[in-house]
Amino acid sequence: MPTPPESVREIRVAALPDGLPRPEHFTIARTPPPVPGDGDVLVRNRFFHVFPALRTLLGGGVPGAPFPPLRPGDVLFGAAIGEVVSAPPGTGPRPGDLVRHFLGWREYAAVPAAQCTPVDDALPDPVVHLGSAAIAYTALTRDARVRPGDTVFVTGGAGGVGSMAGQIARLLGAGRVLGSTGSPAKAQRLVAELGYDAAVIRDAGAGAGPIAEQLAEAAPDGIDVLVDNVGGEQLQAAVGAARTGARFVLVGTLAGQLAPGLPGTTGPAEIDTFQLITRRIAMRGFGGLDDDGQGRPGWVERVGGWLRSGELTFPHVRFAGIESAPRALQEVIDGRHLGAVVVEL
């Protein structure tokens, strides 16, 4: 394995933003390579995920959430895939192995061996592990319990979760799949590339009309399942369109997280709770992933098979070099891309 260079780069918080983060709120720092402690694996990162929830961590975080808030001087973090440079004997990882961990946004990381998950060839591209196929599959199968013939509505259909959830819902037997997105161009791509039957557009400037009216037109008989990545007005519209016994799973709150006038740590939504009662709508927060890092979780086999057969695609955009990461985050927040966004080192 190559010897680490004398200095390596990492992305740090330069200043907390007053509003949405921009590249000037981050700095690229050079530092000596990390020195692994007892039980640590030294990893040379090859890819890391750029995700919009970093805005919440920069805004102070949310009590009870699994990740701490970010402060000036902190190194950013997120899901990453890297190559093992060195590992303690008997810990599992070996030099040359690919592992998944959560210390992205840096070129090298010292990761506790217990926090490294092996990456094998079950998926045709290891970068798929940085996407949201696991979240989409789990939300649909465990939390929303999608059934053959269901009408499924996915908010944020062009995002990392939504770009997978619409396709997976179809593969699980959904009869009609609807998505929301922010522009007519993305709406066209949802239908043309990702198997959505129709898309509603949240941007009032596009002249598409209120979300509730668009959803009523796209699903005149109502919806059975909601995978909600946005919240706000779109969750409100979904309640109004729900059939009796509809199942809702709340995965994200992008409407609140990415609102310039909010701190990114709340997801306010006004909904008619009478409708929850009279229509017997089951609403739950996403229950997290069952993967404990040991063995191969069940979703990998099924998603890997779909990807290899061409029934499922992994929409994503790759940015080259760690220096591109701050710009990549800005473009994620601005909604410039379809699917997951990763930085390739």
Would you give an account of this structure?
The protein has 345 residues and is of the alpha/beta class. The protein has two domains: 8-131 and 314-344, Quinone Oxidoreductase, Chain A, domain 1 (Alpha-Beta Complex); 133-285, Rossmann fold. It has helices at 54-58, 133-143, 162-171, 184-193, 211-218, 232-241, 254-257, 273-278, 298-309, 325-333, and strands spanning 8-13, 26-31, 40-49, 80-86, 98-101, 108-112, 117-118, 151-154, 176-181, 198-201, 223-228, 242-250, 282-285, 316-320, 340-344. Strands 3, 4, 5, 6, 7, 14 and 15 form a seven-stranded mixed sheet that branches. A six-stranded parallel sheet has the order 10-9-8-11-12-13, sandwiched between helices. A two-stranded antiparallel ribbon has the order 1-2. The longest helix has 12 residues, at 298-309.
End-to-end Cα distance = 17 Å
Biggest beta sheet attributes: 7 strands, mixed
| Alpha-beta classification | alpha/beta
Tally of alpha and pi helices? 10
Low-confidence stretches: none
The proportion of strand residues reads 15-25%
**What general form does the structure show?**
globular
Task: Quickly give the CATH architecture of the largest domain.
Answer: Alpha-Beta Complex
The Cα radius of gyration reads 20 Å
Number of self-contained structural domains: 2
**What is the level 1 CATH name of the largest domain?**
Alpha Beta
CATH superfamily of the largest domain: Medium-chain alcohol dehydrogenases, catalytic domain
Can you give the helix content as a percent range? 10-25%
The overall pLDDT average reads 94
Report the CATH topology name of the largest domain: Quinone Oxidoreductase, Chain A, domain 1
H and E string? EEEHEEEEHEHEHEHEHEHHEHEHE
